[in-house]
Amino acid sequence: MNSKVLVGVGLGLPLALMALILVIILPATEENCGVGTPAVVSATTGRTEPNCPATGSPAETGLRDGTLRALRCVVAQFGMMDMRGVITDDSYPDHRDGRAVEFIVGADQAKGDRIVAYLQENAAAFRVDYLIWKQRSWTPAAASAIAWTPMEDRGDSARNHTDRVQVTIKEQTATSAGATPEVSLAAVNEAGRLNGLGRRQYPLAAGTFTVSDVFGSRGGGHLGVDMAASDGTPIYAAADGLVVAAGPASGFGEWVIIDSLDESGRRYSTVYGHMWSNGVFVRTGDVVRMGQHIANVGNNGQSTGAHLHFEVVPGGRLTGGSQVDPIAWLGGASLPAPGAAVYCENGFGTAGGNLATGKVPAELEIWYRRAGSLCPEISASLLAAQGQAESGFRRGLTSPAGAQGLAQFLPGTARSLAPDGQPYVIDADGNGSASVWDDGDAIIGQGRYMCTIAATVKGWMQEGKVSGDLTALTIAAYNAGEGAVLASGGMPSQYAAHFSETRPYVARILAAEASFRSVTSGGRFIPDAAADLGPQIAEAGREWIGTPYVFGGGGTSGPTNGGFDAAGFTTAAVFSASGGTITLPNTAEQQWERGAEVELIKAKAGDLVFGTFGPRGPATVGIYLGNGKMLHAESDRGVAEVPLLNGMKARRIGQ
After folding, report:
1. How many beta carbons lie within 10 A of that of residue 530, not counting itself?
2. Based on the number of CB atoms within 10 Å of its own CB, is 476 exposed (0-12), middle (13-18) or buried (19 or more)?
3. Given a cut of 50, is residue 1 above it in pLDDT?
4. Is residue 409 assigned to a domain?
5. Do 296 and 369 fall within a single domain?
């Protein structure tokens, strides 16, 4: 039973927390530079930009405006340091063009980590194209996830960027009437990545919007996704391409259509609607780059509140194509060939697609998938596990506390306003009324409410007011109220009901979530039931190389709080490699009790290796790779390939 009657403080906080999150995504104010200089407005884009003071460093010479802003704001935050800007060498094209700058920190890697975190948090404001640090590259992900790609060894610390952080800023491409989308789509940047074909990003910066209406709502007539945001919020091109329409359009107020090429070279469109006439900054015929500021959110045309209506159209919006769910595409799903039947089985990278088929009543499946697409913190499988705990998927229930329907909403909570200004329970199914008794309305409302709670709790965690696992605390807040989480500084612990009801409720949902999840849906390792388990454990583990170390982090869902500890890492790898059939305990000591011990000299790739034995057993665990090496979550560098520790022992899982 849901006891959301305790929300009190929590229901008053989402709007304030969304405002706090907007501060975390670097706004154009002097406070972010730590100085009293005002913001400026770019003459070319009309966009307000951070304006930190000049440093006097020779590294400023020849830098593009965006790169110069990044250099000055990093110096304002972290102090003067050695820096390298323009290099007149064709082998460094981004440095040559003034789009890149290096911050040389030498042996002070902690400072480098802080600079990287600052640039990542403010990637949208600075228009970061990519970062290079510690022989790895990072590009802002579609769902704002932090993911690093290892780079080849280039021979020395400078080229490997183990002593310096490089940031490269996205290029603002000049307009070119009559150009085609194929222009300049195959350049390789200094991180060794191919730009152009198939790359994508969200059209609004993380933290600036909420999903207010999903694809396929209104009886199937809503052919995009609505992203509610403040009037004037910047809209960015979701992909490289050619502007084929920009101006008035029936129902849209003003719209922009950009034609692009997917990873297979096929044409598709992204569509942006409801802007004001003075809020469109591109013209038909312009060639734009992903991340370019093309417009501002408006409330024009057939619109009942400020938002962006966003569509993705394989085959082209003006050339007979058909819309598909934009959230799935933004989450990494490949587009179907134009004209092909669109059916999405829990697939690679598909938002909402991690729900395993057949785990919920068939008529509810589409709603859990859509609700699981609303924000990256809340998955379809988690909502399904929560739905099972709340109502057992039974309709028409009313709890003794008055909570109603599939998601067990209290009427007051259902009517409360989300940060987008609409009630949490909206008319998602398009039948003309919003009701907790309707399947789609209840489940989409559940997702909307959980996403708001997650944003609230995440803000508190970033402020240091709350600690713990974000997912667990979000579930706890749904049951006991956000105020209980804040007052307890984490998992609710103030009243007897927090121990007798809330904590068991959280544990029950977290334990059940894996049973609702398709283990092949995350775009990661796909197990082969006919192959040996050991090599697959090693292969699954390799996919997390570079993931940060987080004490207590990790489990069957992968990283938690952004990373792994040693036992959390091996739990994730074994769960993934076994197709979800083997769940290890959460400590190295307990994992030592699983499987069968083998002599270290006879160990094979994928065996677990244990070390630092004490009276209670081993204190650490890793995945053996052969040749005296293992994958291990290192406290100072995250998941890495490292030599075995002295005195390690091996066990084989699955025997």
Report:
1. 5
2. buried
3. no
4. yes
5. no
Q: In 3D, which of 542, 538, 564 has the Cα closest to residue 553?
A: 564
Tokens representing 163 are 């002593």
Q: What are the tokens at 289?
A: 């780059």
Range of the domain at 309: 225-322
Same domain, 510 and 543: no
Q: How many domains does the chain have?
A: 4
Could you tell me which residues come within 8 angstroms of residue 118 by beta carbon, excluding any fewer than 6 positions away?
Answer: 74, 77, 78
Q: Quick one: DSSP state of residue 33?
A: G
Lowest-confidence range among 236-250, 265-279, 517-531?
517-531
Which amino acid makes up residue 510?
Answer: L
- The residue type found at 327 is I
Quick one: CA torsion of 26, 28, 33, 35, rounded to 10 degrees? Answer: -150
Each as own residue / partner, the long-range contacts of residues 531-535 (CB below 8 Å, 24 or more positions apart, any chain) are 532/606, 533/577, 533/578, 533/606, 533/653, 533/654, 534/604, 534/605, 534/606, 534/607, 534/652, 534/653, 534/654, 535/604, 535/605, 535/606
Number of Cβ within 10 Å of residue 129's Cβ equals 25
H/E stretch holding 243: strand 241-249
pLDDT tens per residue across span 312-353: 988 888 877 888 888 877 766 677 766 554 433 333 334 455
Of 322, 342, 367, the residue at which a domain comes to its end is 322
pLDDT tens digit sequence for 298-312 = 999 888 889 999 999
| Domain shared by 12 and 59, yes or no | no
Q: Is the dihedral of CA 136, 138, 141, 147 positive or negative?
A: positive
pLDDT digits (tens, 9 = 90+) for 361-398: 988 988 888 888 788 788 888 999 999 999 999 999 99
Q: What mean pLDDT value characterizes the chain?
A: 80
Side chain identity at residue 535, one-letter code: P
Q: Based on the domain organization, do 239 and 311 belong to the same domain?
A: yes
DSSP label at residue 336: P
Q: Which tokens belong to 247?
A: 């101006």
Six token digits for residue 258: 């950009």
Place of tokens 């107020």: 253
pLDDT at 177 over 60: no
Please spell the DSSP secondary structure of 547-594, one letter per residue: PPB-TT--BTTB-BTTBB-HHHHHHHHHHHHTTT-----SSHHHHTTS
